[in-house]
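Appendix B. One record, verbatim.
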Amino acid sequence: MATDQQTTSDTDEFLKGLFAQNPVFVQVLGTCPTLAVTNSATNALAMGLATTFVLVMSNAAVSAIRNFVPKQVRIVSYILVISTFVTVVDYLIQAISLDLYKALGAFIALIVVNCIILGRAEAFASKNNVKRSVLDGAGMGVGFTIALFCLGSVRELVGKGSLFGLSLFGSHYQGWVIMILPAGGFFTLAAWLQFFNWRAQRRARAAAAAAPEVAR
């Protein structure tokens, strides 16, 4: 019984970042890279995976050293840990694809100051064990990746008529240029936020309607 409860708890720890506490669609964090690099599905997915790697590794490291770092220097220490893993990601992306590295530009380095990563390090990893911290980082990272991919795929599909660079509507399709410009990021994010708010309100109404029946 205890093992089943622990498994359920671990699963919930991971799943919360995907939907219930999605860093972009629910908490509205990390909007700078969300708006800046989601003009294509490829860029969005790459940034999401890079951020997930840094989240998982920094959460694990912060959790492992949490009892040895003085409170007075904890934020500086966390930033140092995060910047170390961002440097690893920076070199990995350069080694894998220079074109992708140029497309993401300065936003790779700016992962260091991403409020999602520092926030999870301070609010969760510094107070929990390594296993739970890794699950939390993985869940938040995957949730962030899903959010970026939702924006990037819509913007590329509508703006260029393609997905991952592959044309889907033929050469006659006239893309909405605004969707791949900065303004398109705001429009697409607003539409997704509206959808998630509608979904949350619908579930809340359904739960409220079901409450009297349960009481009976």
